[in-house]
Amino acid sequence: MRPTRTLAAALARGPVVLDGGLSNQLVAQGCDLSGDLWSAGLLADDPGQLVAAHSAYVRAGARVLITASYQASFEGFARRGIGRTRARGLLARSVECARLAGDRSDEEVWVAASVGPYGAVLADGSEYRGRYGLSVGELERFHRPRIEALAEAGPDVLALETVPDVDEAHALLRAAEGCGLPLWLSYTVADGCTRAGQPLSTAMELAADHPQVIAVGVNCCHPGEVGEAVARAVAATGKPAVAYPNSGEGWDGRRRAWCGSSAYDPGAAREWLAAGARLVGGCCRVGPDAIAELAEALAPPLPPGAPPTDHC
Predict the structure, then answer these.
(1) Main-chain phi, psi angles of 228, to 5 degrees
(2) CB 240 within 8 A of CB 14
(3) What is the pLDDT of residues 193-248, one digit of tens each?
(4) Dihedrals φ, ψ of 175, to 5°?
(5) Each residue of 282-293: pLDDT tens digit?
(6) Which of 43, 121, 264, 309 has the fewest CB atoms below 10 angstroms from its CB?
């Protein structure tokens, strides 16, 4: 159902559960994501699969759905022969697909329009390195048109996510100014720093006084990085933290494949909440089953004498 509160108001009341990795759920549904557009290719080819994937996370207990626009851009669509007018419509469709899935729920479901980093468009793993050789101004000019297109489609919030360095965070925040939407900013981190090697406190402070930012934190990082990063985000900004790590497996950009084993533990989210996280979920390789466990772990305790709730 459409939310009756802003996401910021919901976060002020307690934790809110995000969805998990969209691509892994689409693969589980039998989708081919081998192209450079990744899950965004389905906006043109089979949007029904996106609605089904979003719906799987709603059933699991997610109350915020992130759109399939992470790797979508006018430049990326142009390489596939899609002009700007149709590309704008496909960006809007990403919001529509998530909204349709959310509207089928009896609970409030917020739609977050994903704005991925420039490196995601390169489709070579550059978002895990950053420092593309572009200026802040050049990055801002890249991001602004798709932020404007996504904002016009009417999501509840923007997700500036998987940001690898402070320069791109600067560019994204500048590009989002005036769009009329609240947003969260989340970095991808490693070894207690941004992927570009900058101190987390410096990176988080960037959002401290920004009026549109309702949460700041990390995503698509190893789960073991979350606790410290959340604590630094809250200390630097005084805002609620967002945390949605990946499974802990490693991404091989050359092979375009994940390697290693999962380290994602839904039970660890209680520690993240204690550090200040309020918007919590999963990223790559974290599926509906893990989000269902997360939702159960974060559910408020039943009052004394209340009967248990059956889960379908």
Answers:
(1) -65, -40
(2) no
(3) 999 999 999 999 999 999 999 999 999 999 999 999 999 999 999 999 999 999 99
(4) -65, -25
(5) 999 999 999 999
(6) 309
Q: Where are the beta strands (DSSP E) in 176-269?
A: 183-187, 189-190, 193-194, 213-219, 241-244, 250-252, 257-259
Q: What is the DSSP string of 82-138?
A: --HHHHHHHHHHHHHHHHHHHHTSSS--EEEEEE--HHHHHTSSGGGT---S--HHH
**What is the helix (H) or strand (E) element at residue 17, kind and residue range?**
strand 16-17
Cα 217 from Cα 237, distance rounded (Å): 10
Of 300 and 50, the one with more pLDDT: 50
User: How many other C-beta atoms can be found within 10 angstroms of the C-beta atom of residue 251?
Assistant: 17
Tokens read off for 105:
């729920």
Write out the H or E segment, with its range, that includes residue 280. Answer: strand 277-280
Tokens of 57: 């996370």
Question: What is the reported pLDDT for 308?
Answer: 47
